Amino acid sequence: MNILLVRIGRLGDIVMILPAVKEIQRLYPKATIHVVTSPDGIRLLKAFGLNPGTMVQYKNNILSRLWELYKVRRFIRRQPFDVVYCFERKKRTLSWLPAPAKIIEPSHELQHYAWRCLTLVTASPEQDYKRHYLPVNPQKIPPLHAFLSTQGIACDTILIGLHPTYSGFNKWGKGKESRHRLWPWQHFAKLALMLADYGKKNGMDIKVVMDLLPEERRLGEQIQAASQGRAVLLPTEPDFQRYLCFLQRLNVLVVANTGVMHLAAALNTPLVALFSELHPGDCGPYMPEERFNVLRAEDTANPERGLEAIAVEAVFDAVLALLMNQSINRPGQARAVDVITG
């Protein structure tokens, strides 16, 4: 049996189809799954257990669009497909697809995109988040813990992650989008100072860290300097599997509506998610509600300022609320609630 999946997009877009992919794997365990996706999609779906040999990459580049379309259409024509799932939101993709394909229909009802993808695969899916968590490579965990120990981070350290960027950060023409995706770096620095001060006053081993790509490190260095070293930019090299283990180790991650937010949610990592313009009911963290707090610019007095309108104090309170929730602590993580309430 041959199944075709189509989803082209950034990292977060691909993460949100993972529950549907998992359901397809459960329903059709012997099927060969073929995928048309983006470079981010190939990297993530490979980590999710799909065979990269049955994937074709589509780069949304205006200079090579004709070649990319030819490549995809040739891939689709190579064999017949028994089932086709199109998780794309853009109508132009439909011209590529063999008929009849199952597609995401427009809806006026606010529903999470991941749930809509799930219901495309099965009419009455179970909302069992545990079935959809992203797996990590267990061989990467001991080296990560060894590395963290060299940075003064023990297994029982309360680890708060900051992710101050988003996919497309620093690219030309992203000014308007940046207002809705970038919480000011000065806010991140102030938050790190507040968390470090709180930990010191309460006898808690709190560390605030950033693990960023090379093109993001300059911003991380600004935050580290402005926070007087309270936010530590870890000296890491890009390694996707190691990064998944890092996200899973965090007690809380503070992040805007980005691909990293969706990755962390798929790893069941507690989140403070910052939103502006887009609605979390459509593309927020897909995980149990008690494991995340969403703060929206639209709920402030100045929503036109985007994420800048979200106060540092509100984010600080949201982090502490998650740390005090006993149900979110996992084996191998610091039990923050024991320290805060002890």
Automatic annotation (TrEMBL):
InterPro entries: Glyco_trans_9, LPS_LOS_Heptosyltrfase. GO terms for biological process: lipopolysaccharide core region biosynthetic process. Gene3D superfamilies: Glycogen Phosphorylase B (3.40.50.2000). This is ADP-heptose:LPS heptosyltransferase II. GO terms for molecular function: ADP-heptose-lipopolysaccharide heptosyltransferase activity. One of its GO terms (cellular component) is cytosol. It comes from the Bacteria. Keywords: Glycosyltransferase, Transferase. It comes from Legionella erythra. SUPFAM superfamilies: UDP-Glycosyltransferase/glycogen phosphorylase.
